Amino acid sequence: MMDSKTVVLQKIRNALPAQRERREPEYAAIQRKYLQAGEHDSAHRLALFEQRLRDYDAGLHRCGSSTIAETIAGVLRERQKKSLLVAAEIPVKWLPQNLTFVHNDALTYAEIDHSEGVLTGCATAIASTGTIVLRHSNEAGGRALTLIPDYHLCIVHAEKVVETVPEGLRQMASFAAAAITMISGPSATSDIEMTRIKGVHGPRTLDVILVI
Question: Does the pLDDT at position 188 exceed 80?
Fold first, then answer.
């Protein structure tokens, strides 16, 4: 004899296919008049993305693909940082030789918390909202890697920047089974007595290197 929880869950499973079949025509009939794709060229799209990042108080740097390591070194020198955590698939050629980069394999939360920060790539980015999308694979590391450290340096390639949210969602559909974090600037909240506090739910400081 099945317990009550099993009975309820089985009823839900049985109902879902019928509900889906009934609702698909309803979903298809919804008028979608909102902007579905960007209307501007690449230069305008990147300028919009940069403006949103500045609005959110993120650090912003531009470089070419051949000078990523040099740019990372310059950013970390400005931030007075000598060591960062780094995900396994970050190319070695991105990493300046005079700094220390520690792979995140099997680090404890305490070890991540005591780090100087983290270096990641990104899966896609949305210009209209200044949003960076992290797919938690070897490229971006586990979710803890991007939420616990107080500093995040993110490499964003220009070809990964789309203009609108619908375009971003279509990009994310290709890795929808993965854990995803969407960030728009450094972590901040005004929930406590309407006082803006940084670093509550993630890194207090975000730097972005836009690779053109």
Answer: no
Predicted confidence at residue 178, as pLDDT, reads 87
What domains does the chain contain, in order, with CATH numbers?
40-211 (3.40.50.10420)
The answer to whether 171 and 159 have CB atoms below 8 angstroms apart is no
pTM for the predicted model, two decimal places: 0.82
**In this model, does residue 7 exceed pLDDT 70?**
yes
